[in-house]
Amino acid sequence: YAAKTQGKDAYAMFEPSMRQGFDREVMWRAELQQALQHSALHVVFQPIVTLAGRRVAGVEALARWNHPHLGVVPPDVFIPVAERAGLIGDLGLLVLRRACAEFASWPGSQTAYLSVNVSPSQMLDASFPSKVAATLYEAGLRPGQLVLEVTENALADESEVIGALRRLREFGIRIAIDDFGTGYASLRYLHRFPADIVKVDRTYVQDIARDPAAVHILGTLWQLFGAIGLTAVAEGIEDQAQAAMLMDLGCRVGQGFLYGRPGPLSAITTEPATADQS
Ligand code: C2E
Ligand code: MG
Ligand code: MG
Ligand code: MG
């Protein structure tokens, strides 16, 4: 009798939270679907620069969702929802199309590249490479102007993903391994990944000011990347001390709040910063 009551209570306590979680997921999905239908997503851009001269080498497109009530929802929240809801293919293409169109009418597109994040599940669609090619063509961009960023976990064991990356590279698009050093990729396989650029995660950059071992690790990583033909980019550079240490270690290209926060593409100029001219 007591057990039955307990069971009932346990059910009564368990059920609402479950339903809340489920409702929340359903709500997110429905709202994201609406956002896609109304193209309520936009793209902001962050410069990728040469550390010595602060020349803009590229711009990374970052998706933003402006929700009517919640404000700007960060991609770390809505990208996983889109993946679970099977919407990431549509979302990814919308972002790519937007980013390419804006980039094509930006003066810097003659000298800088466009870098766009893609989820591994997007590349499981066999027609992904041809969709990318069509999007470039519509925007009037050359394959050499585009870099696609994938996280190292995507490369760990997905042979379909590797196949898609090979096709994209044969077409002339460059591939960047994003957030390097945070996932499960083994160094043993690094040279086999079909990639051109490696973006070292900002956690490594944050460590170099306070951890001497991190300096050795980064210095060695840079030598390794050079030896296997990968161009290295340091992510999350926030102050001049980090930039100076990275330059000492042989790092030439980076990205971070020190050089510019994500924002409208029109705010990024390809002229050298005035500080460099003095
Ligand atoms: P990510 O590709 O590694 O992008 C870099 C993230 O670090 C961005 O966050 C950027 O605003 C932030 N960041 C840049 N510089 C600094 C810095 O100096 N300090 C700190 N603390 N952070 C910095 P954001 O825009 O919130 O994007 C988060 C992640 O969401 C991205 O990480 C990417 O994995 C994913 N994402 C964004 N847009 C897309 C997209 O269109 N498609 C897919 N699949 N993923 C996307
Ligand atoms: Mg990225
Ligand atoms: Mg990253
Ligand atoms: Mg990231």
TrEMBL record:
It comes from the Bacteria. Coiled coil: none annotated. Residues 25-276 form the EAL domain. This is Bifunctional diguanylate cyclase/phosphodiesterase. It comes from Paractinoplanes pyxinae. The chain holds residues 466 to 743 of 743 of the full protein.
